[in-house]
Amino acid sequence: MLPLSPEEVTAEWMSNTLGQKVKTVEYTGAIHTTASKLFVTVKYEDEKEDDGSRPAKLCIKGGFTDMAERFPWIILIYQREVEFFNRIAPTLKGLELPKCWWASSDAKQGIVVMDDLNAQGFTFGDPQFEWSIEKVLASVEQLAVLHAGTWGVRAEDYPWLTADYEHAILSLADTYEQTINSPGRPQLIESLTDQSRVIGALKKHFRCRDPRFRCLLHGDTHTGNTFINPSGSPGFLDWQMIHIGSAFHDVAYFVTGALSVDNRRKHEGRIIDHYLTCLGNLRAPNFSRDEVMVEYRKSLLAGIGWIMAPDSMQSMERTLPMIGRYVAAMDDHKTIELIESVPDTKSGS
Fold this sequence. Notes:
Structural class: alpha+beta
InterPro entries: CHK_kinase-like (IPR015897), EcKL (IPR004119), Kinase-like_dom_sf (IPR011009)
CATH superfamily of the largest domain: Aminoglycoside phosphotransferase (APH), C-terminal lobe
CATH class of the largest domain: Alpha Beta
Protein name: CHK kinase-like domain-containing protein
Domain CHK kinase-like: 112-284
Organism: Neoarthrinium moseri
Order of helices and strands: HEEEHHEEEHHHHEEEEHHHHHH
Pfam families: EcKL
């Protein structure tokens, strides 16, 4: 059985996990959001000098609060990240990731034990703050590595990868109007004010993704799920929402959430072009901007998660600026109206 509380992450459990006799586990911090991250320093029984072959400062990620009791589907995304690190990450050359020392799941939990990047001098993105164009360009290069490495993948290639993302989003949408009308929430554009209309657009969007762009997605590419290494290069964290879908889910969601509204309007096309060039260089198909813009515009609906996320899942300090960026983009590109206008055909992605 995997630990379900911080108190159960003991020296004995760490010994079994790392395959090394651990003497003590010292807690140095914790972050509790959708998943929990416990930061620990481990000391070993033999007390040998650290030669880099075994970890000392670790991040233990999993479900260590009552979040799963309130949102039972969350267990699925804990398990999903375990599968990513065990099955997929080893196959993707060039993708920047924290070192994973161990990952496992059971019916109630999914835990990844990885390096504590903060202890190694890394910094982390924060959705409250806008990113530079240069950093966004570097980030879409990382998305291109993920997408090109899994381009054309089908559900049967990953039989363990079920449609949990769609179920999670539609579950949140059940309380859409309650959330958007709660105190402190910003005013939305007219196309985003009706729950039944939004749910209809979501369901149609999931049915109508263009299969030409099918690949494995990170699924939750906002800047709060990024790290920046000491040399300034970004990478993506939190692989809990991976699923098969349109590459432009990741691209549109990331670019819009990372940039100010003005910078997104000025540089969106340039960033898309750079992403497409990277895809081609990595031996994925070559596309022009004109060929992908309808899919990009539809994929901005990925930002709906921030609009309908309850306060218990994200702080208002993070939520408000992100809602502003996504609403502006969905208004600029008439995302809901576009989804409603396209032929209703099942993509199979």
